[in-house]
Amino acid sequence: MRVGVIGTLVWDVIHGRAPNAVAVQEWGGITYSLGALDAALSDEWQIVPIMKVGEDLAVHANQFLHTLEHLAPDAALVEVPYPNHRVELRYFADERRTEVLTGRIPGWNWLALKPLIDAAKLDAIFVNFLSGWELDLATAQALRRHFRGPLYADLHMLVMAVQPDGLRVPKPLSDVREWCGCFDFLQGNEDEIRMMAPDSMALAATAMHAGASCLFVTLGKRGAVYFAAPGFDRLSDLATTRTGSGSGAVRTALVPGQAVTSPGDPTGCGDVWGATQFSRLLAGDSLDQAIHAANRAAARNVEHRGATGLADHLRGKLSAT
Fold this sequence. Notes:
- By secondary structure, the protein is α/β, with parallel strands linked by helices.
- The chain is built from eleven helices and 16 strands.
- Strand 5, helix 2 (about 60-65) and strand 6 (about 80) form a beta-alpha-beta unit.
- Helix 1 packs parallel to helix 9 (about 270-280).
- The radius of gyration is 18 Å and the shape is globular.
- The model has no long low-confidence stretch (mean pLDDT about 90).
């Protein structure tokens, strides 16, 4: 079984993660999702990255990929003649930060993406919008029409704009219903949800009407809220919920987060949460089981700095650093 991963490899420079500490440089972006997938996927699944990398970091990126135990043997990045994405993060609170982006690797169009999707022979696709332009709406709609396996999207930077100086700022999302119709599972944090709808309940109603099966709203230390379409409890229910033939009401609940006992690094927690949750759904877990696993993984991520070694840390093979 093969899960495709669409996202962006980012080199992070992080300031203020610990008081009086020097800036730290390390892999970020999709590498947190890749580490979490590697830790949480069951043994029959392989990871197939479908992503571009700038020529300046291509060797380094491939070295990182080959630390993943679940990496497909035929996995390959698409090297492009652009500087890779780099982000400077400055934390001013535990869960608040500014981000300044440099590098502008273009996203996919359907003409370029379709041959890769076909050749990869995928059973599921995980999308994390980490530049915000990995897919435009037309490409995402074409992907949905063409690919009938489970599709998960962390909407993330889809609701952020980049100012001329590289600073990322929130922007309202246009065509919200159309975007929701491209994916079975949608994830966003509270700030991101507000760029799409007045509140999470309103967005859930829009998403379900467009054909999505679940909306997940991550709440940091407080855990996550989910909204599930009538009849959805595990991946085998997709055939029912996609057609709208499930019976009953939309189900929602708050699943409290797992306590973090000491200050740490919140970078990548949402990415780890989504990748873990989708991995466990792919393994056959129920919605409740998958969300509890995601909460545990996100809490454990706080104890580890950076994506290097993250998969082993999430498996419990390494002590907290």
